[in-house]
Amino acid sequence: MKELLETIVKALVDNPDDVVVNELEGEKSLILELKVAPEDMGKVIGKQGRIAKAIRTVMKAAAVKENKRVVVEILQ
């Protein structure tokens, strides 16, 4: 799951080397903390949060296969 999120976000940003994903795993849920360079924050969030919502939707769809619940948090 971590690799999928990294791949998606690195394709969107100007500084792919600054993308960091931390994975916190519970019994039924998985929290993915995403950090990007400050100048790339707008590209990851998008207008009215549309890109962030799309990323979360893709991650939730991928998590269904593993019977997990995924939360994507975008940190500054």
Secondary structure elements and their pairing?
Blueprint: H1 2-12, E1 20-25, E2 29-35, H2 41-45, H3 50-64, E3 69-75
Parallel strand pairs: 2-3
Antiparallel strand pairs: 1-2
What are the salient characteristics of this protein?
single chain; about 80 residues; alpha+beta; GMP Synthetase, Chain A, domain 3; three-stranded mixed β-sheet; 3 helices; about 40% helix
Could you please describe the fold and organization of this structure?
With 76 residues, the chain is of the alpha+beta class. It has one domain: GMP Synthetase, Chain A, domain 3. It is 41% helix and 26% strand. The chain has three helices and three strands, in the order H-E-E-H-H-E. It has a three-stranded mixed beta sheet with strand order 1-2-3, with helices on one face. A hairpin with a 3-residue loop joins strand 1 and strand 2. It is globular and about 35 Å long. It starts with a helix and ends with a strand. The model has no long low-confidence stretch (mean pLDDT 94).
